[in-house]
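User: Can you recover a sequence for this backbone? Please restate the input before giving your answer.

Assistant: Of course. Working from this structure:
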């Protein structure tokens, strides 16, 4: 059918996620609607109704059930997909630990939106931060094309025999979920070929009639420690594996993103801005403008948030005269943003230089060109030895 053919369309970020999921041929899809993710469900249901998506569509009463369904489907050997946002991610919290602990290679889309506390039906990455220690791999998309590509790569990573862990693909709600732009959609045969390597790997652990398999049993003593140790080791392996998968994707589809991180004009940079998500495109434009002013600034984009790309970041940031980190979420209890907190933990390996944190884009607040111009100016001034404020709430004018 037409939806299975290679094509270029103007679609939303949610549409890109749905197309990608369909092209990966999931066996089970279980979803519950929540703004701004609901369009993903609508599109997948439309694919199913039109015979384009051959999957078991499981309607549930809430996100916690959706996560349990895909976990069970994955443990039975199926390819499973779900999607959520904000409150829905919070409602899944206990089941997410279960999915990760089972080493079930589920792929989930999370459309970033501010979570409970202060009710905010608007963008923000706090939901992503709230589940960073559940044991899932997490990646972050910048635009609609990358959303589609990351979902395909996520299945390749999650189901790899050396990894076997669930993956979340995050993208900024409202900024990307409803943004319509040109997206190159591969044919399903191309995606089949890209994922075919998974069929040649040893069969993964799954429930098989007539064979015993313990899932969810109580882990005691060294048995528990061993499983946790193996889980941590798999997360570490996922870093270089992700770089390899990204390179393979580039060979197959002509697009690649640098793996765990992406660097822009960073080789000869004196200072650098480090950030993620939909703000990166704006930041690139400002970096270009500041270069014309004579400021040698570079940009580092975070694509893999969990596991944190320590080795790649140290290499990218070492030797810079000052570093700025743009956060769209908060590290409660630290008085700064979580990306800043984790980057600052690398200071001994990067080098002791001024490091500035900019908190911006919470709720419905835009990260604008003037905001990023101010950030780069502040980083530049700090690199020259001028006094600087370590943490600035940009939207509030601090």
């Amino acid at each position: 059918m037409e939806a299975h053919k290679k094509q270029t369309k103007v679609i939303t970020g949610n549409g890109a996620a749905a197309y990608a999921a369909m092209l990966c041929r999931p066996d089970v899809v279980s979803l519950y609607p929540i703004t701004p993710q609901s369009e993903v469900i609508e599109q997948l249901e439309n694919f199913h109704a039109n015979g384009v998506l051959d999957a078991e569509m499981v309607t549930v009463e809430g996100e916690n059930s959706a996560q349990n369904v895909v976990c069970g489907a994955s443990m039975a050997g199926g390819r499973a997909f779900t999607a959520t946002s904000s409150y829905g991610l919070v409602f899944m919290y206990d089941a997410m630990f279960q999915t990760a602990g089972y080493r079930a290679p589920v792929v989930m889309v999370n459309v970033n939106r501010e979570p409970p506390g202060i009710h905010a039906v608007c963008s923000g990455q706090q939901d992503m931060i709230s589940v960073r220690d559940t044991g899932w791999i997490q990646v972050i998309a910048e635009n609609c094309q990358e959303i589609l590509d990351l979902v395909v790569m996520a299945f390749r990573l999650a189901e790899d025999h050396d990894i076997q862990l669930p993956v979340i693909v995050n993208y900024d709600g409202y900024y990307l979920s409803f943004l319509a732009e040109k997206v190159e959609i591969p044919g399903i045969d191309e995606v089949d070929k890209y994922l075919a390597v998974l069929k040649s790997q040893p069969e993964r652990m799954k429930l098989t009639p007539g064979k015993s398999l313990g899932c969810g049993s109580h882990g005691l003593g060294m048995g528990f420690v061993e499983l946790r140790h193996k889980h941590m080791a798999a997360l570490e392996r996922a870093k270089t594996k992700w770089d390899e998968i990204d390179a393979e994707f580039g060979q197959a589809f002509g697009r690649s993103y640098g793996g765990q991180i992406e660097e822009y004009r960073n080789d000869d940079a004196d200072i650098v801005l480090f950030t993620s998500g939909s703000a990166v495109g704006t930041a690139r434009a400002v970096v270009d403008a500041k270069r014309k002013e004579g400021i040698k600034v570079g940009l580092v984009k975070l694509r893999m948030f969990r596991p944190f790309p320590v080795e790649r970041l140290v290499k990218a940031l070492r030797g810079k005269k000052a570093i700025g980190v743009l956060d769209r979420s908060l590290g409660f209890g630290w008085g700064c943003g979580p990306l800043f907190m984790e980057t600052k933990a690398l200071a001994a390996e990067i080098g002791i230089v001024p490091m500035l944190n900019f908190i911006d884009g919470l709720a419905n607040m835009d990260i604008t060109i003037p905001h990023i111009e101010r950030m780069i100016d502040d980083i530049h001034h700090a690199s020259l030895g001028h006094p600087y404020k370590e943490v600035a709430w940009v939207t509030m004018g601090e």
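That completes the design. The chain has two domains: 2-253, 261-396.
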